[in-house]
Amino acid sequence: MTGPQVVVVGSVNMDLAVRVPHLPRPGETVPGGELEQGGGGKGANQAVAVRRLGARSALIARVGDDEFGHRLRAELAEAGVEVAGVGTAGVATGTALIVIGPDGDNTITVSPGANAALDPAVLDDHSGRLVTADALLLQLEVPVATCLAAARLARAAGVLVVLNAAPLPATIGAELRELIAAADVLVVNEVEAAGLIGPPGDLPVLELPSALGRFGPSEVVVTLGSRGAVHTGPDGSGDVHVPAFAVAAVDAVGAGDAFCAALAVARADGTTPLGAAVRRACAAGALATTGRGARAALPTGAEVDALLARQGGAEGADGATGTAS
Ligand code: ADP
């Protein structure tokens, strides 16, 4: 297998979704459609996305010793993700209970289960895989202490650390601050950016990345949904906006995961500048919106290349500029 090696330390969930004519009020029972079951969890989704994009992908995670756990592990292996680091814990597999209303509005309840049992000791057995990787990709659905330990190991070995600080907890503790500071690249969406910075005041969206730079990472990317993304410029120059790619979007679920995976893969080669990596990530995020669900439309590297060729200049350009509206 060729391509850069990306290691993901993160979550694995079983997503259980039901579509309903209206979201239930507390105490109300609403009959819904057929139960939809699918692999989820930001860690697993990003690991699958990395592999789809053509890089080597290894996941360090925990599932329960139960039917969901065995099934999800097998699905990940089937998708080409290295699962030697996906062990079992003595609690149930992480599960997300999703209720989807008629307009796509939803409520999601997550039982972290085995994800919460991914303690730093897991790295004792898998540090070899981590320190020889080209990039480490992290999210916040497993204990911050484990992410921090992984980030430190990676950094000490010169491995690029990409942190998708999602979902952002209500309180930003000292350990999370340390983790953010230990990242080379920080990726957040607009809501998470505001959560980190505090009351937004009059700070324009296009200045969020450099405002977040004070948390430590030298490279910061803020995703803006259908408006694309904005990232810190090279050598402290102003923030740069990358417009979204025009696609027939049907479902934004999975866009953020595809974006983070593509960014990590592009930066993992050690030569692609941040602007070009963000353009690839925007293309991957856009393509992921063209199918329903988190993994249905994860693009291949060739599909990203094709979209870049169709819409927007030479590959390797250091980010198209524009104005977020
Ligand atoms: P999250 O789901 O984490 O909040 P976003 O919604 O910001 O992430 O989406 C991640 C990226 O996916 C965006 O930066 C953008 O490049 C791309 N994207 C999302 N929605 C669309 C869309 N409707 N059209 C084109 N690109 C999109």
Notes on the protein architecture:
The structure is a single chain. With 325 residues, the chain is α/β, with parallel strands linked by helices. It has a single domain (5-22, 33-322), classed as UDP-N-acetylmuramoyl-L-alanine:D-glutamate ligase (3-Layer(aba) Sandwich), CATH 3.40.1190. It has helices spanning 42-52, 67-78, 122-131, 144-156, 174-182, 190-197, 208-212, 255-268, 274-288, 301-310; strands at 5-9, 13-19, 36-40, 56-64, 86-89, 94-100, 106-111, 135-138, 160-164, 185-189, 219-223, 229-231, 240-242. The strands form 2 sheets. The chain has a 9-stranded mixed beta sheet with strand order 5-4-1-8-9-10-11-12-13, sandwiched between helices. A 4-stranded mixed beta sheet has the order 3-2-6-7. It is globular, with a radius of gyration of 19 Å. The model is unreliable at 313-325 (pLDDT under 50). Residues 189, 223-226, 228-229, 244-245, 247, 249, 252, 255-256, 259, 282, 285-286, 289 line the site of adenosine-5'-diphosphate (ADP).
